[in-house]
Write a structure and sequence with these properties.
Pfam families: NPH3 (PF03000)
Keywords: Ubl conjugation pathway
CATH architecture of the domain at 4-132: 2-Layer Sandwich
Protein name: BTB/POZ domain-containing protein At5g47800 isoform X2
Organism: Gossypium hirsutum (Upland cotton)
Strand content: 5-15%
Distance between the termini: 81 Å
GO biological process, one term: protein ubiquitination
Radius of gyration: 39 Å
Length: about 575
């Protein structure tokens, strides 16, 4: 940062309440009132350097005490005091932080060369051109101060010249970047890196107001075609700088004018950032898009903003990881912790695009691989949110059922999610248990998971029976030594009949038990089913004439029922 010192006299200004004056043996003959502050000064030396004061004092005699109201001076009383000290020859220090108000006030007072040679405006312009515009951080600080005087800064060309200077430096090849900049990325140490990173400018620019930041980004993109990822990184840095973090815990929703004003400012920043995201896929990460969507839910952003974020996130959902999706719910009415509705909305957007691009996907196509990757991701997410003790079963089931059948090559992940939910929610009703387990396809469970399921007392009885049947069926197929066609021909009628009768009996008995059957009658049902399955196995044993080894293996799952019944 560069500074300019003007004047040689010591500071003789002092303030007493709302009055500011200069220590002098000569009584004050000029009173300047600005807002609630009164300056007691002298016509000499102010009037000779200020064209405005010359015009306002033209009708007064030299001996008269003149009072002038200058309430509309840009920069207020502080900027006017700088100009007054310059007239008195008192030392003042100028830098990027106070240049804009001083320059605007000097222009307002008409402290130009036409009034007196070597006047304040000329010195300020020289400092602006040779120091502020030549410096990187000086240009940014000066540009940021223009937000307090936007009209004056725009009319005097300060904003345009600062933006041009900043953009020129951004476009400078990294090998020629020699000025100081802020770069605090985790793990980055300047001494260990000889080359300047391509996004070296993003942190300093993030200090700007959102409207000025937009001007910088627009100017960069209009001057040349930067990599979309570079613009995306600048947006990411700005969002982290100004938007609330909703990834760790649920923000407190409070009322109050100051809080609402802050939320309105954050909404404006969010909507501006979303509108500046390049259309190129991958310009920003899916994690950043989901984070913006979570923030949008918290701030109550417009439906247009939310819809755009959901659309962009749906395009890149395949790239998401589990950690990218774990956001707390932002609705104060939600008792559950995780924002499962956010994931469901993005998944729906992804599925719309997936169905449009691949109406009849083949087994090895990219679209099948994509949807199966999403299937594993959603099942992993379900396993996490299932631990939420306040998670409604309806939301869990709705998200699980949103995936098409082709998305799950196996149902092991879905089974784990269901088992976790039942474990964390022991009071779930039988109807809800059936609703959850209805999603399972027992044929898509691995042998290890089926072995766990038949011993899982949390599952409904009907689900256990189905798992047992398919486990028995797969076991018989793996142990038979006869030709496959003969084996299927003999087993099919018997197994089909056993399954049909078993299902009918289970359905009938379980329906009765839901209203009036006690624990004793339930055990009786299990014994009946066991007997039925034993009879079915006996008939198959006769058909196979002595295939004792196979029959013994098929009887092993039934022993589980004996253990369950004995309990």
């Amino acid at each position: 940062m560069k500074f300019m010192k003007i004047g040689t006299k010591p500071d003789t200004f002092y303030a007493e309440e709302a009055t500011r004056t200069v220590i002098s043996d000569i009584p004050s003959d000029l009173t300047i009132r600005i807002n609630n502050v009164c300056f007691l000064l002298h016509k000499i030396p102010l009037v000779p350097k200020c064209g405005l004061l010359q015009r306002l004092c033209s009708d007064a005699d030299d001996s008269d005490i003149v009072t002038i109201d200058l309430h509309d001076v840009p920069g207020g009383e502080d900027a006017f005091e700088l100009c007054a000290k310059f007239c008195y020859g008192i030392t003042i220090n100028l830098g990027a932080h106070n240049f804009v108000p001083a320059f605007c006030a000097a222009k307002f007072l008409r402290m130009t060369e036409s009034i007196e040679k070597g006047n304040f405006v000329l010195k300020l312009e020289a400092f602006f051109n040779s120091c502020i515009l030549e410096g990187w951080k000086d240009s940014i600080v000066a540009l940021q101060t223009t937000i307090k005087l936007p009209e004056w800064s725009e009319n005097l060309g300060i904003i345009r010249r600062c933006i041009d200077s900043i953009v020129e430096k951004i476009l400078t090849p990294t090998s020629k970047v020699s000025w100081s900049y802020t770069y605090t990325r985790p793990g980055y140490i300047k001494k260990q890196h000889q080359s300047v990173p391509k996004d070296w400018w993003t942190e300093d620019v993030s200090d700007l107001d959102i409207d000025l930041f937009r001007c910088i980004i627009t100017a960069v993109r209009s001057t040349y075609i930067p990599p979309p990822q570079l613009i995306g990184e600048a947006l990411h840095v700005y969002a982290c700088r100004w938007l609330p973090d909703t990834t760790k815990s649920r923000p407190l929703h409070s009322s109050g004018s100051q809080t609402e004003e802050s939320r309105e400012k954050s909404r404006r920043i969010l909507e501006s950032i979303v509108s500046m995201i390049p259309s190129d896929r991958g310009s920003v990460s899916i994690g950043f898009l989901l984070k913006l969507l979570s923030i949008a839910n918290y701030l109550g952003a417009s439906p247009v903003t939310k819809t755009e974020l959901i659309r962009k996130a749906g395009l890149q959902f395949e790239e998401a990881t589990l950690n990218d999706m774990l956001f707390p719910s932002q609705l104060p009415t939600d008792q559950h912790f995780y924002d499962i509705d956010l994931v469901a909305a993005v998944l729906e957007s992804y599925l719309v695009l997936w169905r449009r691009q691949s109406p009849l996907p083949t087994e090895n196509s990219h679209m099948v691989r994509s949807i199966r990757k999403i299937g594993k991701l959603i099942d992993s997410y379900l396993q996490v949110v299932a631990r939420d003790v306040n998670m409604p079963i309806s939301k869990l089931v709705s998200l699980a059922e949103a995936l098409p059948d082709v998305a799950r090559e196996d149902h092991d992940g879905l089974y784990k999610a269901i088992n976790i939910y039942l474990k964390e929610h022991p009071d779930v009703s039988k109807a809800d248990k059936k609703r959850m387990c209805r999603m399972l396809d027992c044929q898509k469970l691995s042998p290890e998971v089926r072995a766990h399921a038949v011993k899982n007392e949390r599952l409904p009885l009907r689900t256990v029976v189905q798992v047992l049947f398919f486990d028995q069926e797969s076991g018989s197929r793996s142990t038979t030594h006869k030709p496959e066609s003969i084996t299927r021909a003999r087993q099919a009628p018997i197994e089909a009949e056993a399954k049909e009768e078993c299902d009918k009996k289970v359905q009938h008995e379980v329906t009765k038990s839901s209203s009036r059957v006690t624990e004793t009658s339930e055990r009786e049902i299990q014994k009946r089913m066991e007997a039925k399955m034993v009879r079915g196995d006996s008939e198959k044993g006769k058909e196979r004439k002595g295939e004792t080894n196979s029959t013994a293996k098929m009887m092993e799952p039934k022993q589980v029922f004996q253990r369950r019944s004995s309990r």
